[in-house]
């Protein structure tokens, strides 16, 4: 028992020991856990404390940033008080503010000087204040200085401060009083009190005049040179310079320290005498959308002349856009290229553009009295070899030789000048970075030519010096420079920040030019622009009705023709002016391509570009905006073009009108040849053209004056009734260029019902008195390039731009003249005649060739070409011809009056001096074609060729005429020689001269020489006559089809934007039917439809349809399925129908036309060759209609039923 108790005691003791051990271990664990938790908490609190301190610092920095941003945002603001609320729109408020500032502050400003205008506060009884944000700080300070001018008025102004700044300024006012009582100078600058001893504050004449900065949005600063009238003060008081404080200049402010090494003495800085010249590496302008983006980015930047590097655009062209002149030269696809953008207001100052190479271009200008040459360059990169670099500098040397005395050479030189050496004459004190070997070469070049590298003469912060940065943004170099020998005229060099996707930044020079001299330019005082909308049209009609109502009462018997004409044009001018004034329509330009969304994003990009420093989110957003905006501009421009094309296709089925509306520029004549020397000088080009047409239109020495009868019978009296005038007005074509008076056809057409009576009275008085308005004898000549060497003035067609009222009168007279002259025209003439076409003579010539080939008989054909036919006619020949063809005397006298006083001016980008028109008919005049073919008939009437030519069914065919395109025909070369000689002799009497170089002969026999004044005419194997190739080759029909197919494919790819784009298939089909098929099937009425020909036509159209639908031939989709989608007109069936209809038309002719005579003629006497005969034109017609097809064709209904049979094979084959 005791043993059990002892064991139990031991167990109890062990349990107590274990319990104590456990308690002790739990205490240790608890202490350890507590320690660990405390340590963890302590670490976390430390992190939180650090985060809190960081947040506190960030918050403080953010507050500072907001402080400066708010200060910057309100820096250019002024608040105007007391101005009544009369405006109803933002534009009116803006106009009111401009007028208010000009009236009360005598400060001239424009809309570009105002960035934002708005009223603040809730609308009540009192007028709300107006906050005006100016684009420049200088403009704001000038107005603040004139604050006292508002004394004794109900108006006052204050600077714009945040509320907490206003409260702080109020508190500081008390301290200002105390300090001023002490005799100290005290003032408040923003929220700080500035106190100085009174002797330290110097004022008066030593204070600098604050200049007006350019209206740009870039966040850069400029260095302002001292005005000329301050020159003596700065020279005599140089001690003051050391008192200027050393300070940083805030962005968009001016650096008030002029260049230290060399001062610039220049003319007083004013906007009228300042020229902004910029150079910029744009990285590419190969597409129009890139050019659109560039102009959008430069919209608010002052740059009169912008030199461009790395354009990457092929060609050497001068393009005139709505707002600028664009010149470029490029030779390597996708590389290099330089050019210029010149603002339109400098257009008349341009002397020449010269492209020396794809790396160097020269612009010469004369502005006032300053002759200036600007050389734009793009130097080879560091990876290029020394040969390329030397060739580049040789090109610049050549440009310098062609330049004037005053030169600016600028661009991407791919050279680093680095820190400058005081011993270098060409550089100033302010370099950037390190110099490389290319930089040393550039300095040597500057020394050789006495150029100053202007980038180094103006002290700038390093952030405002670099012009290129690497793709990763870590490396920044200054490699774009402006060099000049006009150092004293350069006020400032400035690196601009623009929101354009390029790794370069623009560099701009501010050039002081000589004061302008007043020119004696003529200004058009009347608004001649087109009526832009329906509202203007209605106002115009209403005003014209009022203005013309009193004309009949005003006119008296003694009123002259000039009085009547002036009254009518004044009525038109007054009505137009009133319509524009009431409508307040602004000219929005031709192509408003960018959408509102794109404009908003561009604005956002500009805002982000200004903010500094930028957060990571801002940088990412800016990067995304650059990519997005480029894509959206491309998309917007593409959408805009699509809408315009679809509009014109739906309304007029016209691609031509669509492209006319989408035309963004017109191309200048780049250079012209004077004797053997090419000139690019703009004044010389105009002089060459004027001299050429002055000689061309000069009256001949042997030109005898034609005396007209003084009397005529009553039946001859010409009278124009109102119905003729109304019909003439309604037939006027829209969108035609006006004459020198600027009146368009639209202006006359819209006012038809009000103009008919006064115009009828005017026209009849002109015919009665034979007096014409002096304006009708004036015209402008524009030049249209034809083909050949574009540097040869002979290869341009002169078109006379005549007054619209004259063209209306002329079109009415032309119809009356034709009634008289038409009966004198023979069937050989098919030009400018109703019922005739080019197919008449093409068909006749093809029939002759076919039948002479079949019977192996010789035939000689001469294709006559007159040199400047319309421009060479003697006026005496015109009056003699019209008299002989019984044209009423009133018409002849009136026309003679116009032609005797006729003058014209060559109009290129500028207009030349007037030249007297002593010969020729004016191309562009509705009367000219009728007059020309009448004179041509008078010439041929004197030739007496009754026994010459080819005998066809007892009649002689000696020639064919289509206007001035003449074909002489004969079986004998000797007879043809006589015909050429006599034609030349008689033509000269009327002023016409045969062109030896373009007059050719074609024959199927021996090539016996035929001479024109001892010079042999050229024999050819084929000739393009009226747009169709004719030849004695047996394969001529197939060759012509191949030619038409090639031309159709060229047309197809010229319309690639439509046919290969994303337009609806319906639109593409419309273009195919109206553009491609007519091109393919021109003159198909004269074709021989062999199996081979049918295959070629069908294959061509199917290939185009597959290309339109983007279907590959390998996909093996049936043509019937494709045709169901396109629903296009079948070209083969269409051409066969045209041939059958033409055959029926020829068979039904009853005017003894040679078209029918040659078709039904069996052919000349001769022997056919052995073997299978060649295909004839009539073969496929005979297969359907029989050998008596000409009789069958007389029944129109029966003949039309044959169309299905005639085209059946064609449809089956497709």
TrEMBL record:
Which top-level group of life is the source organism from?
Eukaryota
Question: What Gene Ontology terms describe what this protein does at the molecular function level?
Answer: catalytic activity
User: Species name for this entry?
Assistant: Spodoptera frugiperda (Fall armyworm)
What protein name does the entry list? SFRICE_039427
Instruction: Kindly list the biological process annotations in GO that this record carries.
Output: DNA biosynthetic process
SUPFAM superfamilies linked? DNA/RNA polymerases, DNase I-like
Per the UniProt entry, the signal peptide is: none
Which keywords does the record carry?
Coiled coil
Tell me which stretches of the chain form a coiled coil. Answer: 1-103
């Amino acid at each position: 028992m005791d043993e059990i108790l002892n064991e139990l005691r031991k167990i109890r003791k062990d349990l107590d020991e274990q319990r104590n051990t456990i308690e002790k271990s739990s205490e240790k664990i608890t202490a350890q856990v507590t320690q660990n938790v405390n340590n963890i908490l302590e670490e976390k609190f430390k992190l939180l404390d650090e985060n809190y301190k960081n947040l506190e610092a960030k918050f403080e920095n953010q507050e500072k940033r907001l402080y400066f941003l708010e200060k910057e945002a309100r820096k250019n603001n002024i608040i105007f008080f007391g101005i009544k609320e009369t405006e109803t729109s933002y534009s009116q408020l803006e106009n009111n503010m401009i007028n208010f500032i000009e009236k009360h502050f005598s400060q001239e400003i424009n809309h570009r000087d105002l960035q934002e205008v708005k009223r603040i506060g809730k609308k009540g009884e009192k007028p709300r204040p107006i906050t005006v944000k100016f684009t420049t700080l200088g403009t704001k300070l000038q107005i603040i200085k004139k604050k006292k001018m508002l004394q004794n008025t109900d108006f006052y102004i204050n600077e714009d401060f945040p509320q907490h700044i206003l409260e702080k300024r109020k508190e500081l006012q008390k301290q200002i009083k105390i300090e001023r009582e002490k005799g100290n100078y005290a003032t408040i600058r923003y929220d700080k009190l500035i106190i100085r001893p009174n002797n330290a504050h110097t004022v008066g004449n030593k204070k600098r005049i604050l200049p007006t900065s350019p209206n740009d949005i870039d966040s850069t600063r400029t260095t302002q040179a001292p005005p000329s009238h301050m020159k003596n003060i700065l020279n005599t008081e140089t001690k003051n310079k050391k008192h200027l404080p050393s300070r940083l200049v805030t962005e968009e402010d001016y650096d008030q320290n002029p260049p230290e090494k060399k001062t610039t003495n220049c003319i007083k800085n004013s906007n009228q005498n300042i020229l902004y010249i910029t150079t910029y590496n744009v990285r590419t302008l190969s597409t129009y959308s890139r050019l659109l983006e560039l102009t959008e980015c430069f919209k608010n930047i002052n740059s009169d002349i912008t030199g461009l590097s790395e354009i990457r655009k092929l060609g050497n062209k001068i393009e005139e856009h709505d707002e600028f002149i664009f010149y470029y030269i490029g030779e390597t696809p996708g590389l290099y290229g330089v050019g210029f953008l010149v603002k339109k207001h400098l257009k008349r100052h341009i002397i020449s553009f010269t492209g020396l190479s794809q790396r160097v271009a020269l612009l010469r200008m004369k502005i006032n009295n300053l002759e200036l040459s600007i050389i734009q360059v793009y130097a080879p990169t560091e990876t290029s070899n020394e040969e390329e670099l030397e060739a580049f500098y040789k090109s610049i040397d050549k440009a310098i030789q062609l330049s004037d005395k005053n030169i600016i050479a600028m661009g991407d030189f791919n050279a680093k000048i680095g820190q400058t050496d005081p011993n270098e004459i060409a550089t100033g004190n302010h370099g950037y970075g390190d110099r490389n070997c290319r930089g040393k070469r550039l300095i040597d070049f500057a020394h050789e030519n006495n150029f100053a590298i202007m980038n180094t003469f103006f002290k700038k912060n390093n952030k405002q010096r670099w012009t290129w940065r690497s793709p990763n943004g870590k490396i920044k170099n200054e490699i774009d420079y402006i060099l000049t020998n006009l150092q004293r005229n350069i006020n400032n060099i400035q690196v601009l920040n623009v929101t354009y996707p390029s790794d370069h930044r623009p560099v701009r020079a501010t050039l002081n030019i000589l004061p302008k001299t007043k020119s004696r330019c003529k200004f058009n005082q009347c608004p001649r622009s087109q009526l832009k909308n329906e509202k203007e049209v209605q106002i115009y009609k209403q005003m014209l009705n009022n203005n013309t109502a009193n004309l009949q009462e005003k006119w008296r018997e003694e009123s002259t023709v000039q009085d009547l004409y002036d009254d009518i044009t004044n009525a038109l001018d007054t009505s137009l002016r009133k319509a524009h004034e009431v409508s307040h329509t602004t000219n929005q330009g031709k192509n408003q391509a960018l959408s509102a969304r794109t404009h908003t994003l561009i604005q956002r990009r500009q805002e982000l570009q200004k903010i500094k420093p930028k957060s990571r989110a801002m940088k990412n957003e800016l990067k995304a905006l650059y990519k997005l905006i480029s894509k959206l501009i491309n998309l917007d421009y593409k959408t805009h073009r699509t809408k315009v094309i679809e509009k014109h296709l739906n309304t007029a089925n016209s691609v031509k009108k669509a492209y006319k509306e989408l035309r963004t520029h017109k191309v200048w004549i780049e250079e012209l040849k004077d004797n053997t020397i090419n000139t690019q000088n703009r004044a010389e080009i105009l002089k060459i053209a004027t001299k050429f047409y002055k000689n061309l239109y000069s009256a001949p020495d042997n030109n005898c004056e034609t005396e007209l009868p003084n009397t005529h019978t009553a039946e001859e009296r010409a009278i124009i009734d109102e119905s003729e005038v109304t019909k003439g007005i309604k037939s006027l074509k829209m969108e035609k260029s006006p004459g020198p008076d600027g009146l368009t056809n639209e202006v006359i057409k819209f006012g038809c019902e009000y103009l008919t009576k006064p115009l009828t009275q005017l026209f009849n008085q002109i015919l009665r008195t034979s007096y014409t308005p002096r304006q009708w004898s004036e015209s402008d000549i524009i030049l249209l390039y034809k083909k050949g060497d574009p540097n040869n003035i002979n290869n341009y067609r002169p078109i006379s731009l005549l007054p619209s009222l004259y063209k209306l009168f002329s079109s009415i007279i032309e119809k009356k003249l034709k009634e008289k002259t038409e009966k004198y025209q023979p069937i050989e003439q098919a030009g400018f005649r109703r019922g005739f076409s080019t197919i008449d003579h093409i068909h006749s010539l093809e029939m002759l060739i076919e039948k002479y080939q079949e019977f192996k008989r010789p035939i000689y054909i001469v294709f006559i070409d007159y040199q400047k036919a319309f421009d060479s006619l003697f006026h005496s020949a015109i009056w003699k011809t019209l008299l002989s063809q019984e044209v009423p005397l009133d018409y002849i006298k009136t026309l003679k009056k116009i032609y005797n006083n006729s003058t014209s001016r060559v109009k290129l980008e500028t207009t030349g001096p007037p030249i007297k028109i002593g010969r020729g008919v004016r191309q562009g005049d509705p009367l000219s074609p009728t007059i020309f073919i009448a004179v041509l008939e008078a010439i041929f009437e004197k030739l007496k060729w009754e026994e010459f030519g080819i005998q066809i069914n007892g009649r002689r065919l000696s020639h064919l005429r289509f206007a001035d395109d003449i074909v002489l025909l004969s079986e004998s070369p000797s007879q043809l020689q006589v015909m050429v000689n006599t034609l030349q002799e008689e033509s000269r009497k009327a002023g016409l001269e045969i062109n030896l170089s373009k007059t050719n002969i074609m024959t199927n026999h021996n090539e016996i020489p035929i001479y024109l004044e001892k010079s042999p005419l050229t024999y050819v194997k084929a000739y393009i006559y009226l747009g169709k190739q004719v030849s004695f080759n047996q394969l001529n029909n197939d060759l012509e089809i191949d030619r038409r197919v090639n031309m159709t494919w060229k047309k197809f790819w010229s319309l690639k934007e439509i046919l290969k784009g994303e337009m609806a298939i319906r639109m593409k089909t419309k273009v195919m039917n109206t553009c491609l098929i007519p091109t393919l099937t021109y003159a198909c009425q004269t074709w021989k439809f062999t199996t081979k020909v049918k295959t070629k036509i069908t294959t061509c159209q199917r290939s185009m349809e597959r290309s339109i639908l983007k279907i590959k031939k390998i996909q093996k989709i049936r043509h019937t399925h494709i045709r169901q989608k396109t629903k296009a007109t079948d070209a083969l069936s269409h051409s066969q129908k045209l041939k059958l209809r033409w055959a029926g038309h020829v068979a039904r002719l009853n005017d003894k036309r040679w078209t029918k005579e040659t078709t039904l003629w069996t052919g000349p006497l001769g022997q056919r060759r052995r073997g299978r005969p060649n295909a004839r034109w009539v073969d496929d017609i005979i297969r359907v209609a029989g050998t008596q097809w000409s009789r069958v064709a007389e029944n129109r209904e029966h003949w039309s039923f044959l169309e299905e049979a005639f085209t059946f094979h064609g449809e089956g084959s497709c």
